Amino acid sequence: MWPTLSEVNGMPMNTYGLFIALAFSASFLYVHLRAPKIGIEPDRLLPAYGFAVLGGLLGGRLLYAIAVDTQAFLSNPLSALAPTGGGFAVYGGVLGGALAVGAYLASRGFPMWKMGDIAAPSVLIGMGVGRFGCFFAGCCHGAIAPIGADPVSLTGELLKGHVWLSGVAPFLTTEFEGGVARITDVPLYPTQIWSIVSCLSLAGLLAWLWPRRRFDGQIAALALLLEPPFRTLIEAFRADHRGYVFTWPVSERVVAWFPGMTQAGVDVEGAMMGLTTSQFIGLLTMVAGVGIYLARRHSGRGVETPLADDMLEQLA
Fold this sequence. Notes:
Blueprint: E1 4-8, E2 11-14, H1 15-34, H2 46-67, H3 70-75, H4 90-107, H5 112-137, E3 152-153, E4 161-165, E5 172-176, H6 191-209, H7 218-235, E6 244-249, H8 252-257, E7 272-276, H9 277-296, H10 309-315
Antiparallel strand pairs: 1-2, 3-4, 4-5, 6-7
Helix pairs in contact: 1-5, 2-4, 5-6, 5-7, 6-7, 7-9
Protein backbone atom coordinates (compact mmCIF):
# COMPACT_ATOMS: atom_id res chain seq x y z
CA MET A 1 0.00 0.00 0.00
CA TRP A 2 2.69 2.46 1.09
CA PRO A 3 5.90 0.51 1.80
CA THR A 4 8.17 3.57 1.62
CA LEU A 5 7.23 6.59 3.70
CA SER A 6 9.67 8.98 2.03
CA GLU A 7 13.29 9.29 0.96
CA VAL A 8 16.04 11.19 2.75
CA ASN A 9 19.18 11.86 0.70
CA GLY A 10 18.16 9.04 -1.64
CA MET A 11 17.65 6.55 1.24
CA PRO A 12 14.12 5.12 1.58
CA MET A 13 12.38 5.37 4.95
CA ASN A 14 10.59 2.07 5.53
CA THR A 15 6.96 2.48 6.66
CA TYR A 16 6.94 -0.95 8.34
CA GLY A 17 9.94 -0.01 10.47
CA LEU A 18 8.29 3.25 11.47
CA PHE A 19 5.18 1.49 12.76
CA ILE A 20 7.24 -1.12 14.61
CA ALA A 21 8.95 1.77 16.41
CA LEU A 22 5.55 3.35 17.10
CA ALA A 23 4.27 0.01 18.39
CA PHE A 24 7.09 -0.27 20.93
CA SER A 25 6.59 3.38 21.93
CA ALA A 26 2.82 2.97 22.46
CA SER A 27 3.40 -0.12 24.59
CA PHE A 28 6.02 1.60 26.73
CA LEU A 29 3.83 4.69 27.19
CA TYR A 30 0.95 2.58 28.51
CA VAL A 31 3.23 0.84 31.04
CA HIS A 32 4.84 4.15 31.99
CA LEU A 33 1.43 5.64 32.82
CA ARG A 34 0.15 2.59 34.71
CA ALA A 35 3.24 1.85 36.81
CA PRO A 36 2.70 4.71 39.33
CA LYS A 37 -0.76 3.28 40.07
CA ILE A 38 0.89 0.29 41.76
CA GLY A 39 3.66 2.30 43.41
CA ILE A 40 6.46 1.79 40.87
CA GLU A 41 8.54 4.74 39.74
CA PRO A 42 8.37 4.78 35.92
CA ASP A 43 12.06 5.59 35.56
CA ARG A 44 12.94 2.24 37.17
CA LEU A 45 11.44 0.55 34.11
CA LEU A 46 13.61 2.28 31.51
CA PRO A 47 16.11 -0.62 31.27
CA ALA A 48 13.19 -3.02 30.81
CA TYR A 49 12.15 -1.14 27.67
CA GLY A 50 15.58 -1.73 26.20
CA PHE A 51 15.34 -5.45 26.97
CA ALA A 52 11.88 -5.47 25.37
CA VAL A 53 13.25 -4.03 22.12
CA LEU A 54 16.23 -6.37 21.94
CA GLY A 55 14.29 -9.47 22.98
CA GLY A 56 11.37 -8.60 20.74
CA LEU A 57 13.45 -8.03 17.62
CA LEU A 58 15.52 -11.16 18.22
CA GLY A 59 12.49 -13.34 18.98
CA GLY A 60 10.58 -12.05 15.98
CA ARG A 61 13.44 -12.76 13.60
CA LEU A 62 14.16 -16.19 15.07
CA LEU A 63 10.58 -17.45 14.90
CA TYR A 64 10.17 -16.16 11.35
CA ALA A 65 13.37 -17.89 10.27
CA ILE A 66 12.43 -21.16 11.98
CA ALA A 67 8.83 -21.24 10.73
CA VAL A 68 9.16 -19.81 7.22
CA ASP A 69 12.80 -20.18 6.14
CA THR A 70 13.40 -23.46 7.96
CA GLN A 71 15.98 -24.91 5.59
CA ALA A 72 17.99 -21.69 5.44
CA PHE A 73 17.91 -21.44 9.23
CA LEU A 74 19.08 -25.04 9.70
CA SER A 75 21.94 -24.56 7.25
CA ASN A 76 23.01 -21.25 8.81
CA PRO A 77 21.26 -20.32 12.10
CA LEU A 78 23.12 -17.00 12.30
CA SER A 79 21.35 -15.88 9.11
CA ALA A 80 18.28 -15.18 11.26
CA LEU A 81 20.17 -12.32 12.89
CA ALA A 82 20.93 -10.55 9.60
CA PRO A 83 19.01 -7.23 9.51
CA THR A 84 18.04 -7.82 5.87
CA GLY A 85 17.55 -11.56 6.21
CA GLY A 86 13.76 -11.73 6.00
CA GLY A 87 10.58 -10.92 7.87
CA PHE A 88 9.36 -10.69 11.41
CA ALA A 89 6.96 -12.95 13.36
CA VAL A 90 4.74 -11.03 15.78
CA TYR A 91 4.34 -13.92 18.22
CA GLY A 92 8.10 -14.42 18.20
CA GLY A 93 8.58 -10.76 19.07
CA VAL A 94 6.09 -11.00 21.92
CA LEU A 95 7.67 -14.17 23.32
CA GLY A 96 11.21 -12.86 22.98
CA GLY A 97 10.34 -9.53 24.55
CA ALA A 98 8.40 -11.17 27.39
CA LEU A 99 11.26 -13.50 28.26
CA ALA A 100 13.84 -10.73 28.22
CA VAL A 101 11.74 -8.29 30.24
CA GLY A 102 10.55 -11.00 32.65
CA ALA A 103 14.11 -12.04 33.41
CA TYR A 104 15.13 -8.43 34.07
CA LEU A 105 12.12 -7.64 36.28
CA ALA A 106 12.53 -10.84 38.29
CA SER A 107 16.19 -10.08 38.90
CA ARG A 108 15.25 -6.64 40.25
CA GLY A 109 12.48 -7.85 42.54
CA PHE A 110 9.51 -6.29 40.77
CA PRO A 111 6.01 -7.68 41.58
CA MET A 112 5.75 -10.02 38.60
CA TRP A 113 2.01 -10.69 38.53
CA LYS A 114 1.18 -7.00 38.90
CA MET A 115 3.63 -6.17 36.11
CA GLY A 116 2.09 -8.90 33.96
CA ASP A 117 -1.34 -7.33 34.39
CA ILE A 118 0.05 -3.98 33.25
CA ALA A 119 2.04 -5.47 30.40
CA ALA A 120 -0.80 -7.51 28.85
CA PRO A 121 -2.81 -4.58 27.43
CA SER A 122 0.41 -2.82 26.43
CA VAL A 123 1.49 -5.82 24.34
CA LEU A 124 -1.89 -5.87 22.57
CA ILE A 125 -1.57 -2.15 21.88
CA GLY A 126 1.84 -2.78 20.36
CA MET A 127 0.54 -5.65 18.27
CA GLY A 128 -2.36 -3.53 16.99
CA VAL A 129 -0.21 -0.52 16.11
CA GLY A 130 2.41 -2.78 14.52
CA ARG A 131 -0.21 -4.23 12.16
CA PHE A 132 -0.50 -0.81 10.52
CA GLY A 133 3.04 -1.48 9.34
CA CYS A 134 1.91 -4.83 7.92
CA PHE A 135 -0.95 -3.10 6.12
CA PHE A 136 1.27 -0.50 4.48
CA ALA A 137 4.03 -2.98 3.62
CA GLY A 138 1.62 -5.57 2.19
CA CYS A 139 2.71 -8.45 4.42
CA CYS A 140 0.38 -10.67 6.50
CA HIS A 141 -2.25 -10.27 3.78
CA GLY A 142 -5.38 -12.32 3.21
CA ALA A 143 -6.40 -14.88 0.64
CA ILE A 144 -8.22 -13.91 -2.53
CA ALA A 145 -11.69 -12.65 -1.59
CA PRO A 146 -14.97 -12.10 -3.46
CA ILE A 147 -15.74 -8.47 -4.17
CA GLY A 148 -19.02 -8.40 -6.13
CA ALA A 149 -20.09 -5.77 -8.62
CA ASP A 150 -19.44 -2.02 -8.47
CA PRO A 151 -17.07 -1.87 -5.46
CA VAL A 152 -16.08 1.53 -4.09
CA SER A 153 -12.43 2.37 -3.41
CA LEU A 154 -12.08 4.04 -0.02
CA THR A 155 -8.50 5.10 -0.73
CA GLY A 156 -8.68 6.22 -4.36
CA GLU A 157 -5.24 7.14 -5.63
CA LEU A 158 -3.88 7.88 -2.18
CA LEU A 159 -2.12 4.52 -1.77
CA LYS A 160 -0.46 2.00 -4.07
CA GLY A 161 -3.47 -0.23 -3.90
CA HIS A 162 -7.07 -0.08 -2.76
CA VAL A 163 -9.34 -0.71 0.18
CA TRP A 164 -12.58 -1.80 -1.46
CA LEU A 165 -16.08 -1.51 0.00
CA SER A 166 -18.69 -3.77 -1.58
CA GLY A 167 -22.01 -5.46 -0.88
CA VAL A 168 -20.50 -8.97 -0.76
CA ALA A 169 -18.93 -10.59 2.31
CA PRO A 170 -16.40 -9.78 3.67
CA PHE A 171 -17.64 -6.31 2.48
CA LEU A 172 -14.18 -4.77 2.99
CA THR A 173 -11.22 -6.02 0.96
CA THR A 174 -7.68 -4.88 0.25
CA GLU A 175 -5.70 -4.90 -2.98
CA PHE A 176 -1.94 -4.41 -3.21
CA GLU A 177 -0.04 -3.19 -6.25
CA GLY A 178 3.41 -3.70 -4.77
CA GLY A 179 5.22 -4.02 -1.47
CA VAL A 180 6.00 -7.50 -0.20
CA ALA A 181 2.58 -9.06 -0.84
CA ARG A 182 2.66 -12.56 -2.35
CA ILE A 183 -0.67 -11.92 -4.11
CA THR A 184 -1.11 -8.59 -5.90
CA ASP A 185 -3.66 -6.80 -8.08
CA VAL A 186 -6.65 -8.80 -6.77
CA PRO A 187 -9.00 -8.20 -3.80
CA LEU A 188 -7.91 -9.95 -0.59
CA TYR A 189 -9.44 -10.56 2.82
CA PRO A 190 -8.43 -7.55 5.00
CA THR A 191 -6.56 -9.59 7.60
CA GLN A 192 -4.30 -6.73 8.67
CA ILE A 193 -7.31 -4.52 9.38
CA TRP A 194 -9.02 -7.32 11.29
CA SER A 195 -5.87 -7.76 13.38
CA ILE A 196 -5.69 -4.04 14.16
CA VAL A 197 -9.32 -3.94 15.29
CA SER A 198 -9.14 -7.13 17.35
CA CYS A 199 -5.88 -6.29 19.15
CA LEU A 200 -6.80 -2.69 19.98
CA SER A 201 -10.32 -3.69 21.06
CA LEU A 202 -8.95 -6.38 23.38
CA ALA A 203 -6.40 -3.91 24.73
CA GLY A 204 -9.22 -1.47 25.49
CA LEU A 205 -11.26 -4.17 27.23
CA LEU A 206 -8.34 -5.33 29.39
CA ALA A 207 -7.36 -1.74 30.22
CA TRP A 208 -10.94 -1.18 31.41
CA LEU A 209 -10.85 -4.38 33.47
CA TRP A 210 -7.45 -3.64 35.03
CA PRO A 211 -8.68 -1.48 37.97
CA ARG A 212 -11.52 -3.99 38.45
CA ARG A 213 -9.31 -7.11 38.56
CA ARG A 214 -9.99 -9.50 41.42
CA PHE A 215 -6.53 -11.03 41.66
CA ASP A 216 -3.00 -10.30 40.48
CA GLY A 217 -2.40 -12.12 37.21
CA GLN A 218 -6.02 -12.00 36.07
CA ILE A 219 -5.46 -9.52 33.22
CA ALA A 220 -2.41 -11.44 31.99
CA ALA A 221 -4.38 -14.69 32.05
CA LEU A 222 -7.29 -13.13 30.15
CA ALA A 223 -4.93 -11.79 27.49
CA LEU A 224 -3.49 -15.27 26.96
CA LEU A 225 -7.00 -16.69 26.72
CA LEU A 226 -8.73 -14.09 24.55
CA GLU A 227 -6.21 -13.09 21.88
CA PRO A 228 -5.44 -16.52 20.33
CA PRO A 229 -9.02 -17.30 19.17
CA PHE A 230 -9.12 -14.02 17.22
CA ARG A 231 -5.67 -14.69 15.79
CA THR A 232 -6.65 -18.26 14.85
CA LEU A 233 -9.77 -17.08 13.03
CA ILE A 234 -7.87 -14.37 11.16
CA GLU A 235 -5.14 -16.87 10.25
CA ALA A 236 -7.81 -18.97 8.53
CA PHE A 237 -8.10 -16.20 5.93
CA ARG A 238 -4.43 -15.25 5.58
CA ALA A 239 -2.50 -16.38 2.52
CA ASP A 240 1.05 -15.17 3.09
CA HIS A 241 3.69 -17.86 3.53
CA ARG A 242 4.19 -18.46 7.26
CA GLY A 243 4.61 -22.22 7.53
CA TYR A 244 2.73 -25.14 9.05
CA VAL A 245 3.39 -27.21 12.15
CA PHE A 246 1.63 -30.09 10.39
CA THR A 247 -0.86 -30.61 7.55
CA TRP A 248 -3.67 -32.99 6.62
CA PRO A 249 -5.81 -33.57 3.51
CA VAL A 250 -9.26 -31.97 3.29
CA SER A 251 -12.09 -31.73 0.78
CA GLU A 252 -12.34 -28.93 -1.78
CA ARG A 253 -15.36 -27.65 0.14
CA VAL A 254 -13.26 -27.14 3.28
CA VAL A 255 -10.63 -25.39 1.18
CA ALA A 256 -13.28 -22.87 0.18
CA TRP A 257 -14.28 -22.31 3.81
CA PHE A 258 -10.75 -21.64 5.08
CA PRO A 259 -8.77 -20.22 2.12
CA GLY A 260 -5.96 -18.87 4.28
CA MET A 261 -5.25 -22.11 6.12
CA THR A 262 -4.91 -23.91 2.79
CA GLN A 263 -2.62 -21.28 1.24
CA ALA A 264 -0.28 -20.54 4.13
CA GLY A 265 2.54 -22.67 2.71
CA VAL A 266 3.58 -22.13 -0.90
CA ASP A 267 5.01 -25.66 -1.07
CA VAL A 268 1.72 -27.33 -0.14
CA GLU A 269 -0.21 -28.57 -3.16
CA GLY A 270 -3.71 -29.94 -3.54
CA ALA A 271 -6.53 -29.91 -1.00
CA MET A 272 -4.42 -29.67 2.15
CA MET A 273 -5.00 -27.77 5.37
CA GLY A 274 -2.48 -27.06 8.07
CA LEU A 275 -2.10 -25.75 11.59
CA THR A 276 0.11 -22.69 11.27
CA THR A 277 2.95 -21.88 13.64
CA SER A 278 1.02 -18.97 15.15
CA GLN A 279 -2.10 -21.06 15.68
CA PHE A 280 -0.04 -23.71 17.46
CA ILE A 281 1.59 -21.10 19.70
CA GLY A 282 -1.85 -19.63 20.34
CA LEU A 283 -3.12 -22.98 21.59
CA LEU A 284 -0.19 -23.23 23.99
CA THR A 285 -0.76 -19.71 25.32
CA MET A 286 -4.44 -20.48 25.90
CA VAL A 287 -3.44 -23.50 27.96
CA ALA A 288 -1.06 -21.27 29.91
CA GLY A 289 -3.85 -18.72 30.40
CA VAL A 290 -6.19 -21.36 31.81
CA GLY A 291 -3.45 -22.59 34.14
CA ILE A 292 -2.68 -19.11 35.43
CA TYR A 293 -6.34 -18.29 35.96
CA LEU A 294 -7.02 -21.49 37.90
CA ALA A 295 -3.85 -21.21 39.95
CA ARG A 296 -4.27 -17.53 40.83
CA ARG A 297 -8.05 -17.08 41.10
CA HIS A 298 -8.12 -17.26 44.91
CA SER A 299 -4.91 -15.29 45.53
CA GLY A 300 -6.48 -11.83 45.66
CA ARG A 301 -4.68 -8.55 45.02
CA GLY A 302 -1.50 -7.72 46.85
CA VAL A 303 -0.98 -4.38 48.56
CA GLU A 304 -0.25 -1.55 46.16
CA THR A 305 0.34 2.07 47.15
CA PRO A 306 0.03 4.55 44.27
CA LEU A 307 2.74 7.17 44.04
CA ALA A 308 1.69 10.57 45.34
CA ASP A 309 1.23 13.37 42.81
CA ASP A 310 4.06 15.41 44.33
CA MET A 311 6.45 12.46 43.91
CA LEU A 312 5.44 12.11 40.27
CA GLU A 313 6.10 15.81 39.74
CA GLN A 314 9.59 15.40 41.21
CA LEU A 315 10.27 12.46 38.87
CA ALA A 316 9.10 14.51 35.90
